[in-house]
Amino acid sequence: MANLLTARRGRLRWDWTDWAAHLYLVLGTLVMFGPVLWLGLSSVKSESGLQAYPPTILPYEQARIDVPERGTLKLFHVTQGEHAGQDLAEVRRLGLQSQLVDPANPGTLIRLPIEARTPVMRLHAAWENFTDLFSQFSFARIVWNSVFITVVATVLTLLVNSMAAFALSKYKFSGRDQVFLLMLATLMIPPTIVLVPNYLIASQLGLTNSPWGVIWPAVATPTGVFLLRQYMLTLPDELLEAARMDHASEWRIYWRIILPLSSPALAVLAIFSVMWRWNEFLWPMVVLSRSESFTLPLALNSFQGELTTQWHFLLAMTVLTLLPVTAIFVVLQRHIAQGIASAGVK
Amino acid sequence: MVKLVAALYAALMNLPERPMKWAQSQLSGGRLGWVFVGPNLAIFAIFTFLPIAFDLHYALTGGTQLLPGDRPYVGAENFASLLDCTDHFDPNSCRRDLFWHGIWNTLAFVGLQVGLMLFFSLLTAIVLNGRIIGRSFFRAAFFYPVLLSPVVVALIWKWILQREGLLNAAMEGVGATPVNWLLDGNWAFFWSVFVSIWAHMGFYTLILLAGLQSIPAEINEASQMDATRPFRHFTRITLPLLMPNVLVVLVLGLIRAVQIFDEVYVLTGGGPGSATTFVVQYIYKTGFADQVRQYGLAAAASLLLASVLLVLTLIQMKGQGGGKQRG
Amino acid sequence: MSRKILIAAMAGVLAAGAAQAGDVRIACYSDGNECEATEVLAARFMAQNSDIKIIIDKQPFKSIQENLPVQLAAGQGPDIARTTDFGPVAKYMLDLTPYLKDPKYWEASFGPVLNWMRKDSSDHGIYGLMTQLTISAPLVNKTLFDQAGVPVPKAGATWDDWAAAVKKVSVATKLNAGMAWDRSGARFAGPSISMGAKYFAADGSPAVVDDGFKTAASKYVAWSQDGTVDRDVWVAAGGGYRDAFAEFANGKIAMYLSGSWQLTRLEKQIGDGFEWVVASAPCGVGGCTGMPGGAGFVAFKNTKNPKDVAKFLDFLADEKVYAEWMVMTNNVPAHTALQKQSLPYKLSPAGNAAITAFGANAALLTPLAYKLQGDPMSRPIFGAVADRISAVMAGQMTLDQAYARITADVADAVAATKK
What we know:
The complex is a heterotrimer of chains A (346), B (327) and C (419). Chain B has helices spanning 2-14, 17-26, 32-59, 77-83, 97-129, 135-143, 150-161, 166-173, 185-213, 217-226, 230-258, 262-268, 279-289, 295-320, 323-326. With 327 residues, chain B is mostly helical.
């Protein structure tokens, strides 16, 4: 315990605290990451495999066999009686009785009680969950919509928020602190409660069914302004003074000096913005109602009907949506950690 | 590639040079700041402040009409009906029992979730700050769920926790009796706390880890030399130095927790009964999901919630005192 | 140079959103393949009518349920939408009568369900086309009954007979519960009407809690406590719908009160896993009724092309096309003439037997069941019943408190719509 609570660079020997720490991390990783793996495995299960209980870790389905003149039949393993140990194909089932044939000798019917047989299972990944998706939607269009909204909204967010943060950190004007407080106060508004009025406004502005209807309301984020302002406060004012001496315009100072110096904080905001826009569901659902303007989360949820949900498609779609974000994260994870470290709190 | 991006950046950013120069010549001193905050403020005005004004109007009018002009004025009736209880501590005695279930559940949730989340992110940050093999891997693994959307988070856990789910199958596998995790009020509440911690703690861990790493090594080494009481060292030296980070975690965590909605809504639907019904869910249900939509009630409830939040923030800012310079 | 490219790019992006006038937009949601089947028929329609373009927007059900009224209020929205909840959009719906080829054919073929889309009894408009008729009915795992040696109750058996039978099966085959009902006030309405609930006062206003209703509610709660009924299905969710299909498909219950929309899933996900049959709705003093239901394509006033909208719906309503549509989607027709025919469904023998049994159940539906389903207050009633009775089952209130809450919830909804 002693060393767990204090840093201990420089020691060489492992003691029990090191073991405990690693154990904690390994268990934690299982809890944090295991459920996502489970989602991935489930997404390649067949429709009935998803409903099965107890669930299997890997995607299994009942083996089938082509029997001449009888078509493709399900394979069963016989556990009792004279055929015990054999794998037979079921022709049909009548109540509590099953009629099976030996695939090698399909002419003779064998009758068995149903409890005398268990299904033969085999590994089978239902890739059709994924491939069928592509025929369900104009997939390229939906991906393009999502990418367009994410990229444009992120660029605009960075621009608009950094401008505001620049003013709030480097200028003194009356009303500045009030403006900052007002922006922070909007953090308190749960987005759910302004959904309806926002739709009325968006519709007045002609923004419905257009990607801009998703982009504009998202561009001014209180979190972004807060994060960037805190970071810019740490940049020395002397830099600005020196530039002013050289007769640089204020706008030039902003984009030539302040923005490049704020890149760690901008990177963090960029990651968050990408994540927010890519995953956003409720507002796009309200503002976009035409399939050609749909984003990925909307298409994903169109598998939810009133009375039934097509889980196999929904899970496959979820995995597809996760892939790009995961890829970006894997590539950038070091920068995210450093960015939060340098920008998150000052 | 880098050059192209740089050139594009320069070309783009040069566009407003002239109008901005003109603005600079017209405005003296710090007033140019208004031009810089302008775009952000304008968007806020249209998509946040204006809707709140709408909400105020909705709160004072009744009926199920959606267009503000069609709604009859009812005064404070919506607020009165929300607050109408014989005993405010017993939701069943209230006219709007779900609203009050939501309030008490939200309070309990906020206390439990924020406290536990702080504890676990602090613990994880401390562990990660130690001598760890594969630190960046573990840091990434703990952060990954932050990337998931709330709906996906809830779907994953629902799939695990439902009666015919993975967890129960595993328990049956080792001979334990399966539990209906989402059917018992207390368990359902526990899991909503757990899942929301699962989804968010990575972010807070990184903030705290950053704070720990910025504590100069000499301080730790110096105290390690003479101190034999590590816990004391932690509470007396590390924690105070970490306080600004802890505060950020607390404030952000509180704001998020009070607004808890989509994760739990998809996970439990607010059940069993009303055991995991929170205030924002009541607002959503009343104004948006119910067959007869009472926008007035929903708006009144959201204004009540917003004013509570505002008061909380003001208290927090007062309490922080010198926080203004630091933010 | 770079500036010009940029401006051109921006202009291109802005232009991409514009839509053409002359299109017919349909907001559709699927419980199975309804939207896809409609797309197939729409393609054929467009081949015959090259001047009309039908565009089907497949959406989440939630999106239609929650956003459609908001969109319509703002003067936006589609020309046609598939919805089950006509009340909130009633005032935006378009009376198609003047545009239809033969309104009398519509009256004759869809008479009983046209009322559901009407505002009140003085309204004689035709507002849309039901995309199917759903009938709630008991689905039975006959294999479990056989294993237990208990005969499946015959047509005319009461709810008490059924409760006793499934209880026996559950004991003999070691199930946790004998039967389950979908968590839905609409599902609950079938048994409660059969047990004598009236749902309306003499003047036609909602009066949910009466002796018949109390009988049904107290029986249901008691059954959920002694393991006759699977309590979890209702308790698991705080609000909204939850089905018990997984429980039925996994052989955890002997009887499942659901309905005809499950047919495709029964075929696909159970197949011959066990023997499943559709039974006749259990009886009581109020009859032997399930509940009718279903979604409809309704047209809206703000459409620019009412003639084209009507033309497409006329096309779908045509007896031949409608029959084809039903076969494609494995649905029971809302078309009265087609209900009497046997359609060439591409189903297994069990599936064909099931669809015949659903048809037989349709004949048992009482007028009260139709009236309740079509009443503008039906959804608030169903919501309140499911939520409050679930709360009783979860142990959070007593039955008497639940009765008071249901009455208050419904009165509240009525008062809000009157303002």
